[in-house]
């Protein structure tokens, strides 16, 4: 293999055929199973869209009952796991906790578990892991899941004991994060699945990949940046300093979208609507950051991505920034599991190549430098 064969970061390489979602990076479109994301957030809620992504069509009434009941009955965690969580270091990052607890759940399951039923079970448990960790870490009593609440309401209830205003907006933000083609975490988890490994290993892989700041971890970094800027007047200098030092500006740019990310557009509109009624922290600074970054990078087509405005919204709900990426995972598990199962239907293990550029034909010497078999 030659250097010309290299596709750095697998840019432009197709690794699967999929009917789950379609991203048009030039027009800024995202489509789940044929439906535009704008229509789905307007008209559907988490359970319906999860059903759509897993099963390929929107649910009828019976199917809706089925998915709601599946997702609400499997929320509890084994008590042993909750006891173990109480022993975790109090400053453990929520993504590290989520990754570890999903892995632990794998010990409670038979190896042959890559079924849709198990995918749904795990999707039901992820909000519980996140909320329990929030309560344990803050020395608050755990709030157990409530079957009569829907997926996102139940999560907010387990976190805060009540439903914040705009909780519908939270549900819709989950829909926006549910699926996005062959992104890094979906690819990583599909690779794990392609070895016929179990679903807990698949999702542990995905969470570890999502955690990085170039992927889902960017939402936490965006809020850190906005806090650090602190004042709208300081935005141009702060951004120019990052550019001068060749640092990435978090929440901007995308491998596929070469125009405004449609998810960022929707999130920005919601934050704008909320801010018409009440103060939304950091929104003014964020708007200025967007103006400056888009202007400075006008030749490179760099625009806000999904992670730019999501954190401002979560912060407004009272969710601490280190939990932001877990919210992303809570939604994206639907896409991860859908892809893992779709790929299994025509499975082939992933095994790409690297191009060797190290030394060859070295003579083996012992520790004293004496050549052996020379
Ligand atoms: C998302 C991301 C990883 C995509 O990476 P990619 O497709 O490999 O794109 P590259 O990093 O090669 O960027 C292409 C060019 O745009 C620039 N660029 C892209 N995103 C940038 C950003 N956020 N800030 C500054 N420059 C950026 C790169 O420096 C590069 O410039 P060059 O051609 O002069 O070297 C990248 O845009 C990024 O790091 N963004 C910040 C992290 C983030 O928000 N991630 C969440 C993604 S949803």
TrEMBL record:
The lineage of its organism: Bacteria, Thermotogati, Thermotogota, Thermotogae, Petrotogales. CDD domains: citrate_synt_like_1. It catalyses: oxaloacetate + acetyl-CoA + H2O = citrate + CoA + H(+). One of its GO terms (biological process) is carbohydrate metabolic process. Pfam families: Citrate_synt (PF00285). GO terms for cellular component: cytosol. SUPFAM superfamilies: Citrate synthase. Belongs to the citrate synthase family. This is Citrate synthase. The keyword DNA damage does not apply. Pathway: Carbohydrate metabolism; tricarboxylic acid cycle.
């Amino acid at each position: 293999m030659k250097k010309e064969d290299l596709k750095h970061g697998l840019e432009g390489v197709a690794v699967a055929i999929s009917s789950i979602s379609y991203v048009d990076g030039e027009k800024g479109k995202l489509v789940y199973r044929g439906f535009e994301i704008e229509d789905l957030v307007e008209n559907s809620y988490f359970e319906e869209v999860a059903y759509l992504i897993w099963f390929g069509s929107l649910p009828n009434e019976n199917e809706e009952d089925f998915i709601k009941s599946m997702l609400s009955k499997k929320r509890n965690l084994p008590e042993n796991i909750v006891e173990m969580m109480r022993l975790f270091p109090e400053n453990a990052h929520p993504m590290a906790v989520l990754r570890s607890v999903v892995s632990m759940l794998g010990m409670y399951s038979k190896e042959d578990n890559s079924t849709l039923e198990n995918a749904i079970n795990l999707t039901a448990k992820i909000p519980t892991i996140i909320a329990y960790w929030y309560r344990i870490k803050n020395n608050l009593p755990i709030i157990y899941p409530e079957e009569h609440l829907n997926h996102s309401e139940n999560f907010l209830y387990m976190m805060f004991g009540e439903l914040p205003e705009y909780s519908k907006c939270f549900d819709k933000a989950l829909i926006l994060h549910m699926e996005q083609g062959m992104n890094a975490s979906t690819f990583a988890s599909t690779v794990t699945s392609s070895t016929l490994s179990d679903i807990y290993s698949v999702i542990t892989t995905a969470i570890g990949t999502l955690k990085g700041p170039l992927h889902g971890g960017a939402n936490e970094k965006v809020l850190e940046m906005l806090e650090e800027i602190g004042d709208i007047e300081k935005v141009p200098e702060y951004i120019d300093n990052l550019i001068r030092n060749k640092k990435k500006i978090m929440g901007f740019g995308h491998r596929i979208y070469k125009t405004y990310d449609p998810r960022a557009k929707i999130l920005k509109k919601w934050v704008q609507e909320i801010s018409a009624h009440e103060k939304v922290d950091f929104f003014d600074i964020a708007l200025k950051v967007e103006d400056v970054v888009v202007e400075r990078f006008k030749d490179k087509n760099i625009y806000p991505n999904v992670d730019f405005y999501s954190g401002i919204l979560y912060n407004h709900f009272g969710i601490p920034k280190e939990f932001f990426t877990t919210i992303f995972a809570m939604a994206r598990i639907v896409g991860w599991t859908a892809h893992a199962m779709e790929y299994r239907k025509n499975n082939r293990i992933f095994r790409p190549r690297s191009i060797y550029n190290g030394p060859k034909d070295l003579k083996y010497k012992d520790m004293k430098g004496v050549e052996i078999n020379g």
